[in-house]
Amino acid sequence: MGDFLQGLSMVTNFSTVFWCAFGSVLGIILGALPGLTATMGVALVIPVSYNLSNTATGIGLLLSVYCGAVCGASIPAILLGIPGNPNAIATVEDGQLMTRKGLAGQALGGAVIASMIGGLGSEIFLIFFSPLIARMTLAFGPAEKTTLALVGLVIIAAVSGKNILKGLLMGALGFVFAFFGKDPVSGIVRIPFADLLRQTPLANGFDMTSTLIGLYGVSQVFSEIPNLKKTQDRVVAANIGSVFPPLRKIGQMWKIILSSLGIGTLVGAIPGTGASIAVFMAKNAATGICDASKGKLEKPGTGCLEGVFAPEVANNAVTGGALIPALSLGIPGDSATAVLIGALMINGVTPGFALFSQNMPLVYSLFITLTIANIFMGVFQLAGVKVYPKVLLISQRLLMPIVLILSFIGSYALAGSSVEKGLFNVGTALFMGLVGYAMKKNGYPLAPIVLGLILGGMFEEQFRKAMKLGAGTMSRFVSSPICWVFFLISVAIVVSTSVKNRRENGK
């Protein structure tokens, strides 16, 4: 009880509440703008979160942007038929049909209520299961942690694109970036032209935050440059109508809500799946429930609230579910949680058993801020249903320069009073932006680079420890059942993803 009260005291202050509110609004706007994602939003606010006085406040800002962006993606999906991110694809069909019927307000309001139910419901599972999974990691030694890092990298490589080889190559590139700087054992500077660059900031490796900002912020600007010359032709529905669906209707959908909540949380908790799978599974389950209702519920696909509620509950339930392996194991389920893990580590939160055993007040503060983030997400989006659609009319010619300026300012501000390091951070963001742009243009996913950068240090440190304990042999890996399980999981993921991709390419 004392840990909970201490965690509560870390959150119950004006600063935390303000930044959670700000993050929710910012996240909703980012989610509503096609092309801007939750991943990019989290990356852009990392410098702000890092410079806030309270760690809990910084985490609250990150989680609020994350939750807000996931929910905000439903706005363009319903009004324009353009999902703000791939997770909102299943909302498009019924959302667009409701808009054409003059029920855009009910569709938007229903999506918000469904998002709150999904977010808050999945958090209950997060609170109960993440400490249990974290406790299991007590059985992990250096060898097991090495193979765990390998599994995390393979998972994110498998789900980040249609070509797993490209994903693995990007993960390897992330490892290369992680190995820049000083050797953790000998202290030798490991960079090209070491004698020349020894006294530069590069001797300490790439700055994590500037790297994330460059890969997701600056690269997006470069990607949008060819589209700036095109005239923007977006027409937002003029008649929003009532913004709150009938309570009786919501009550009738209780089976759909519970089904979608369970699917979203479970799928989110399984690393390597993601919301894109959960939303279609939830919509399919809802169709079965509606068929069995004998006409009491409308069937998804006909322009009904059921077809909006099911995917939106599942979509936001994934956020809480995905945080279970992210906090307890440090394994993300998708690119957004990969960046979120990096952001949490920058803010001093290292996933795993140590977090739950040594810093429970911070864990409780994280749970409380996640609750606040979900509540603010619902309140602000519901209150702004008639306002946020106007955001869709913002010109890319105005938006992209703002994103670029904020990216460079954020990178520079991380260095504090050091001009040299500030310029180096800006250079890092620009370099990573060019790398990210080149990779995206050629179909290479960015998330594995991020995870490789995050896991690279852990992989190297634990691998060298395992080799030292094994007297220079692989005996620690060969003799561990957990290592074999992780290794077989990695192989199974590579094989199954390759077979699946070949079948899809064949079709």
How would you describe this structure to a colleague?
This protein is an all-alpha fold and 507 residues long. The chain is built from 23 helices and no strands. It has one domain. Helix 11 crosses helix 20 and helix 16 crosses helix 21. The longest helix has 33 residues. It starts with a helix and ends with a helix.
Largest sheet: none
Alpha-carbon distance between the two ends: 57 Å
Return Rg in Å: 23 Å
Estimate the mean pLDDT confidence. Answer: 81
**Which residues sit in consecutive blocks of at least 5 with pLDDT less than 50?**
none
What labels would you give this structure?
507 residues, 23 helices, mainly alpha, 0% strand
Outline of this structure?
It is built from 23 helices and no strands. The protein is mainly alpha-helical and 507 residues long. The longest helix is centred in the first third of the chain and has 33 residues.
Itemize the secondary structure elements and their pairings.
Layout: H1 2-11, H2 14-32, H3 38-50, H4 55-72, H5 74-79, H6 89-100, H7 104-136, H8 142-159, H9 164-178, H10 194-197, H11 208-224, H12 247-252, H13 254-269, H14 275-292, H15 305-328, H16 335-346, H17 353-358, H18 360-383, H19 396-413, H20 419-441, H21 447-469, H22 475-478, H23 481-506
